């Protein structure tokens, strides 16, 4: 058995649907789709899951050997809970067919308002043991401004329902640097969320993306983002408040109670392999990265049509089917760059001996010049064991990352 | 000699000079339609694109008159821009006559006038030709009246033609033969030939374009170039076939053609020089020879420092064909190694810059154009300064003189106000205004050259909706209140951005430059002050705030490839920056800051 299998890998399932699109969203997701397309999509997705399972999860060269072990599953989107419960259950049942580790972390992403609170117990029965709830802001006026379709009251209800369903490992997403948001608003959001006692909190600085309503409004001068200085004040405040409340700041934007760090995401930053299924989902097998097609028509055509039925495929196995695009084969140099800019996202940094174990070269030899320059700028610290971002480096992380690409 | 006519064509840009030349070549029957590369005379890509002629080209035509007489017509092409006035004057000196092409719809322009006066100074017979008569807006009668009123030429017999559509072209031939006098000269006198242009050829060396006035020249002639004092043995003589050189046994008095003599350096063949025989020299060289001096200077630097040698090689190659281009190595703290280059004028500068970029694939950074200032120092010495960076300390300067031009601006009556305003803004001294007719006036202004070398022409065009035209002549130097404006980035002076400016407008210029620069330089980890200073006095300041945040706050499994590309792009951008002290400045900032456009 390969080492990567022994350690387990990640499984990501993408649900490209939302009840409505948020103002800042540039993710691959469609709003207001009908039941018909939901059903066709889930049918196709289930087929892709079955096919992948039958082909060693794409991840090992020799698919004949024992199936890979999955120790994390993440069902994200979009909003997975935008699907009707029976369809989501069908996916969760299919997930259960994978070779899951006994203690696998299985996360479901959801928004507070999806009227699925009654179904949470079923999801828990089907293996969901972690929720990631997109709250973003406490104040309803900000939620409306971001075109979020929920209120903070609904958030409280969701938290209660989750616990009632037996799911206690809960992440809450928050955003700062919102138009008109003050430090006071931000503190209130954090305080209120802390009162709900989630195990994990993600705090993101709002990053406007092109071709979103938010971007257009900014371009038109209708709204204004807080200055870089205010944005950082909010970030520093989050670090301060959350640390004080017992959350470890373990990644640039992530905070967790001890032992509750997101395994799925941590594996990404450590460059552990994962397979992504569903429209536009990304995969990584250690040597290469690829993305599933983003074309819904093509996806449904390949996975949803009877011609691509498993039985037919199994007859002529010469050409395994897939909807992979943008395959990127990583050189050693690419892999090292990734290891740097992903590894340094985590506050404990990169262990020199891990780097040596992975690449057979000393980090300090590969990037000696960069380390010296970044240390001089006060962006990183280097010890005999590891390198990590300084507090200044957390604010200017890209200045550090770009040195290694 | 009676069957020879030597002539040139005077026309404003796009009044149809090249097109008419093509028609003449076509009709004279020396080229088939297929051989015509549309516009034979303008053979550089750039010339064709800009629709102007940079290098004079010439062609010999054989014209058979209706009475059966054969004539040899030498068309000597002239460059058509103010920067090349001297070259034009030498081309004119090689002719007995000039066709004056006037656009029947647009009438006479300032530049045309300037060249007509040049032609008159050279005692040329001027034959008006009215072109574009097939345009709807054409008004041939008014154009004729214009020619008579403004220039004082009889236009009653001017051919009315359309070069584009080949209307009445034979009338042009008839006019050339009838109106332009045949050359005069003594074939037996000592050789006396005028150099009016030259071209570098990799195999033959410099090809010298000449007009023989007296005597004859052939292979083996020991020739003396009187101004440079160089002697050469002639290797080849010939005339200008359409698009090619055609060898002939000799060139005699009255003829136009070329010679080669294994001349390696185009500088040995200066335009306007007189060629004679070493053994039997002509007693007197042609008058009017001038050493051409650069009027406009700027620093040209390779964007990629490693391309310095490529830039040098390219400039060397361009100089082979362009005696007016000067350059010498220059080192800038901000831009590294490059060259200080001298040009006849701004158009010349632009052409060289474009050719370097286009033909030699170089990515360049050019600094603010400068003129030559005469800096009188307190120790009673004077230096000619073309690089603002070399200006001595103000305490050692007694006074500074700057070059002054006399500008003639031909402007439709509706735009007189805005154009006069423009000239005032540029420190112009009003001399006079002359109404050419009811709708157009000729404005004469004295203007400092440094006020027109940057964007004057563009501004003139934009404020007159493209109708005003302009010509200038250097008339001398004048004492002026000039100061050096320095730009400091994070307290480091940026030598490439220093320039000399009129004291009263310096603060305003400095303020605008600082504002622009603020937009060009990305935030750094620290605050960056940008200052404009005259000596030690800061006249403007802007501050670029410190970079507080540069972070991708989300990066999960689906983001890695995309985020990596983002980081690579950000890093790539930094490679194209120049360090000024601890500050990284994007290359385009140097150019963009100089664009003080109309705002």
Tell me what you see in this structure.
The complex is a heterodimer of chains A (405) and B (599). Chain A is α/β, with parallel strands linked by helices and 405 residues long. Chain A has helices spanning 3-7, 35-54, 85-96, 120-125, 140-145, 152-164, 183-195, 213-219, 228-244, 263-269, 296-304, 310-315, 332-343, 352-359, 363-366, 368-376, 391-395, 397-401; strands at 9-15, 17-18, 30-31, 70-77, 100-110, 130-136, 169-176, 200-205, 248-251, 254-256, 274-277, 282-284, 288-292, 324-329, 350-351, 380-382, 386-389. In chain A, the strands form 4 sheets. A 9-stranded mixed beta sheet of chain A has the order 9-10-8-7-6-5-4-1-11, with helices on both faces. A 3-stranded antiparallel beta sheet of chain A has the order 12-13-14, with no helix packed on it. Chain A is globular and about 60 Å long. Chain A starts with a helix and ends with a helix. By secondary structure, chain B is an alpha+beta fold. Helix content of chain B is 25%, strand content 34%. Chain B has 14 helices and 32 strands. Chain B is globular and about 90 Å long. The termini of chain B are far apart. Mean pLDDT of chain B is 86; it is low at 31-56. Classes of the chains: A alpha/beta (405), B alpha+beta (599). Chain A binds chain B through residues 10, 12, 204-205, 207, 227-229, 231-232, 235, 252-253, 265, 268-269, 274, 276, 280-282, 284, 289, 291, 326, 328, 334, 337-338, 341-342, 345, 377, 392, 394-399, 401-403, 405, and chain B through 525, 545, 547-558, 560-561, 563-564, 567-568, 570-571, 574.
């Amino acid at each position: 058995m390969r080492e990567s299998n022994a350690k387990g890998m990640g499984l990501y399932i993408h649900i490209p649907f939302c009840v409505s699109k948020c103002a800042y969203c540039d993710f691959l997701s469609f709003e207001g789709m009908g039941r018909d397309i939901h059903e066709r999509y889930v049918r196709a997705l289930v087929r892709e899951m079955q096919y992948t399972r039958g082909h060693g999860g794409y991840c090992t060269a020799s698919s004949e050997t024992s199936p890979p072990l999955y120790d994390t599953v993440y069902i994200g989107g979009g909003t997975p809970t935008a699907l009707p419960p029976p369809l989501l259950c069908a996916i969760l049942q299919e997930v259960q067919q994978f070779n899951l580790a006994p203690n696998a972390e299985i996360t479901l992403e959801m928004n507070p308002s999806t009227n699925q609170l009654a179904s949470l117990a079923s999801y828990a029965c089907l293996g969901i043991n972690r929720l990631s709830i997109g709250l973003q802001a406490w104040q309803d006026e900000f939620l409306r401004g971001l075109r979020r379709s929920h209120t903070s009251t609904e958030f409280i209800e969701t938290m209660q329902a989750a616990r009632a369903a037996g799911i206690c490992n809960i992440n809450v997403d928050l955003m700062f640097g919102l138009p008109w948001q003050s430090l006071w608003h931000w503190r209130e959001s954090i305080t209120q969320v802390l009162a709900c006692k989630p195990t994990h909190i993600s705090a993101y600085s709002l990053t406007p993306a092109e071709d979103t309503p938010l971007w257009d409004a900014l371009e038109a001068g209708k709204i204004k983002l807080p200055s870089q200085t205010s944005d950082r004040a909010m970030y520093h405040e989050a670090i301060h408040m959350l640390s004080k409340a017992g959350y470890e700041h373990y990644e640039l934007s992530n905070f967790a109670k001890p032992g509750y760090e997101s395994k799925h995401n941590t594996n990404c930053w450590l460059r552990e392999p994962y397979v992504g299924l569903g429209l536009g989902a990304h995969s990584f097998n250690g040597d290469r990265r690829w993305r599933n097609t983003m074309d819904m028509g093509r996806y449904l055509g390949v996975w949803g049509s009877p011609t691509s039925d498993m039985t037919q495929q199994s007859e002529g196995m010469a050409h395994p089917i897939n909807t992979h695009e943008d395959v990127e084969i990583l050189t050693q140099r690419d892999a090292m760059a990734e290891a740097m800019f992903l590894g340094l996202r985590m506050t404990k940094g990169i262990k020199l001996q891990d780097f040596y174990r992975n690449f057979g070269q000393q980090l300090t030899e590969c990037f000696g010049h960069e380390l010296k320059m970044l240390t001089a700028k006060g962006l990183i610290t280097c010890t005999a064991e590891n390198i990590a971002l300084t507090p200044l480096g957390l604010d200017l992380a890209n200045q550090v990352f770009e040195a290694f690409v | 000699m009676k069957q020879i006519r030597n002539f040139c064509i005077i026309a404003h840009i796009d009044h149809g000079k090249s097109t008419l030349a093509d028609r003449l070549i076509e009709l004279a029957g020396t080229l088939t339609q297929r051989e015509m590369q549309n516009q034979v005379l303008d053979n550089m890509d750039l010339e064709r694109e800009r629709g102007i002629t940079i290098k004079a080209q010439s062609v010999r035509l054989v014209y058979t008159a209706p009475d059966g007489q054969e004539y040899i017509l030498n068309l000597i092409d002239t460059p058509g821009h103010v920067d090349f006035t001297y070259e034009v004057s030498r081309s004119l000196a090689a002719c007995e006559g000039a066709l004056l092409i006037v656009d029947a719809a647009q009438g006479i322009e300032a530049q045309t006038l300037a060249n007509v006066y040049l032609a008159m100074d050279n005692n040329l017979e001027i034959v008006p030709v009215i072109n574009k008569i097939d345009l709807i807006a054409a008004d041939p009668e008014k154009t004729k009246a214009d020619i008579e009123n403004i220039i004082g030429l009889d236009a009653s017999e001017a051919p009315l033609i359309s070069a584009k559509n080949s209307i009445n072209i034979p009338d042009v031939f008839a006019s050339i033969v009838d109106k332009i006098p045949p050359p005069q000269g003594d074939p037996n006198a000592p050789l006396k030939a005028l150099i009016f242009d030259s071209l570098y050829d990799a195999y033959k060396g410099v090809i010298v374009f000449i007009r023989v006035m007296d005597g004859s020249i052939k292979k083996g002639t020991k020739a003396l170039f009187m101004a440079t004092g160089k002697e050469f043995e002639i290797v080849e003589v010939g005339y200008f076939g359409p698009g090619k050189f055609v060898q002939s046994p000799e060139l005699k008095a009255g003829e136009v053609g070329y010679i080669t003599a294994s001349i390696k350096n185009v500088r040995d063949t200066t335009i306007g020089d007189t060629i004679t025989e070493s053994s039997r020299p002509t007693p007197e060289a042609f008058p009017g020879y001038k050493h051409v001096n650069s009027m406009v200077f700027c620093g040209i630097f390779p964007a990629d420092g490693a391309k310095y040698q490529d830039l040098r090689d390219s400039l060397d190659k361009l100089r082979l064909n362009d005696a007016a281009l000067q350059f010498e190595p220059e080192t800038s703290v901000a831009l590294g190694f490059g060259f200080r280059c001298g040009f006849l004028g701004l158009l010349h500068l632009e052409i060289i810059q474009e050719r370097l970029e286009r033909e030699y694939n170089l990515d360049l950074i050019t600094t603010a154009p400068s003129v030559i200032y005469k800096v009188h120092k307190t120790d009673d010495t004077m230096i000619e300064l073309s690089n603002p960076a070399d200006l001595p300390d103000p305490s050692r300067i007694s006074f500074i003189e700057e070059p002054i031009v006399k500008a003639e601006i031909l402007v439709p009556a509706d735009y007189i106000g805005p154009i006069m305003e423009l000239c005032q803004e540029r420190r112009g001294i009003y001399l006079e205004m002359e109404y050419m007719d009811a709708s157009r006036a000729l404005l004469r202004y004295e203007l400092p050259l440094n006020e027109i070398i940057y964007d004057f022409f563009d501004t003139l065009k934009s404020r007159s909706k493209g109708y005003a035209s302009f010509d200038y002549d250097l008339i001398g130097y004048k004492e002026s209140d000039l100061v050096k404006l320095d730009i400091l980035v994070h307290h480091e002076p940026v030598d490439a951005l220093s320039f000399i400016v009129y004291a009263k407008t310096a603060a305003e210029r400095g303020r605008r430059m600082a504002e622009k620069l603020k937009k060009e330089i990305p935030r750094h980890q620290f605050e960056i002050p940008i200052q404009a200073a005259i000596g030690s006095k800061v006249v403007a300041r802007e501050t670029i705030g410190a970079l507080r945040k540069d972070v991708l706050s989300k990066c999960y499994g689906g983001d890695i490839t995309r985020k990596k590309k983002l980081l690579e792009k950000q890093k790539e951008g930094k490679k194209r920056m120049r360090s000024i002290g601890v500050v990284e400045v994007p290359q385009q900032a140097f150019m963009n800051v100089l664009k003080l456009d109309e705002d």
